[in-house]
Amino acid sequence: MTMKQVRVGIVGFGTVGRATADIIVKHADLIAHRSGVRLVVTAVCRRSSVQPQDTPAGACAVADWRRLLKDPNVDVVVETMGGTGESLELLRSSLEQGKPVVTANKNLLAEHGDELFRLAASHNLPIGFEASVAGGIPILRVIHESTAGDRLRSVHGILNGTANYILTQMESRGIEFAEALSEAQAAGFAEADPSFDIDGQDARDKLCILARMAFEGRLDVAHIPTCGIRHVRAIDIHSATRLDSTIRLVGSAEQTDAGLEVSVRPWLVSRRSMLAKVEGVNNAVFLVGDKIGTQMFYGRGAGGDATGSAVVSDLIEIARDFAAGQMNAKNISGFLSSRELVLSDRPKPASWYLRLTVKDQRGIVARVAEVIAREAINIDSLEQEPHLPKDRVSFVITVEPVSEPVIRRAVDTINGFDFMVEPVLLLRMEE
Ligand SMILES: NC(=O)c1ccc[n+]([C@@H]2O[C@H](COP(=O)([O-])OP(=O)(O)OC[C@H]3O[C@@H](n4cnc5c(N)ncnc54)[C@H](OP(=O)(O)O)[C@@H]3O)[C@@H](O)[C@H]2O)c1
What we know:
single chain, alpha/beta, Rossmann fold, Alpha-Beta Plaits, nine-stranded mixed sheet, binds NADP nicotinamide-adenine-dinucleotide phosphate
């Protein structure tokens, strides 16, 4: 009996698209043996020309994705071009033409997931999106399938490899943010425009998808408070070390009695914590559930091979159903449910790290301490960095647990003082 072939068209033939094609070609026999289906790349698309030696054997290369969609030799479409404009059009058109899709695009799903999953359901077609969160870590499948019998309480972790690389370079070599960023760009770990990664939007989009999946409700990505690592300085890493801690950009969604607490921001984490042990471009996702306790999923969160491997895992799942003539939309309740996730209006108290940079003058500490005392906040420690120029003195205060609105009120007042050189850097401290 001949093995059923499923023909794949890849739109966006860059890092992830090419790696996906490469895995399909190099692992063709392995995939066929394991899945009973032979995946074949029949078309690739990007606007600039594709060299013949880069095109998978037997595939055609086109510049317009509309041509690829019309191609009767394409059964399943992979979207690896990114963005939210043409990629949205591509997914809509593909589903409307009855072709299932696989995408690595978290930005698209965080912004347009509701519409796309509804459209997919109405056509009884799946959207594979494992690659959209944490690259090669199969975390979405774990939430959808492996923990389906448990009630999840929290999903949090390090979701952006670029920011983590920069922070761990600052930590291991004592360099400033700007130097670590330009090294990350030179090493290919950061884009020419790095703002999506360092300002937290990339982690925010991934967290939005994770939270929807874990807590089964809709969540507007714009409602996730997001702060990146742009303002973290070498002095903060140094102060963190003195506190036996380090700094990590953490996306966190936690179900509390008052609703969902969700944010992306840099945290001060204990050196002994598992978060601190995640280094370089790696990602880690922690799931906390009533029955499973705490589980950690760790690995390469980006890069062509790891992400392409997640794309291929979705392709195999879809191809099996396609070959069996049993196409169906997955019930992704986080996108299909009409329930909105309720955000907490009473955030849990936490300890905080405040770094102040001031023009040195007499009485500063007393004025800052007075503001903090007025909010009934207890100071845990106060330390001034020695040997700094008088016009740019930094000191660090850590405070005992208070809720965020309370510490923010104090920070807003402090930021209004004329001796402040730049706004306070406020970091949440890990429990
Ligand atoms: N790189 C990673 O590690 C990683 C990890 C997880 C998820 N992702 C996601 O995967 C997607 C792709 O990322 P990437 O790193 O592979 O990007 P990339 O290297 O920049 O590749 C994008 C490809 O899409 C093509 N393209 C862009 N617009 C197009 C259009 N309108 N029509 C046809 N082709 C178009 C580009 O070529 P032309 O400009 O010549 O058209 C290029 O070949 C993004 O959504 C990203 O967020 C990436």
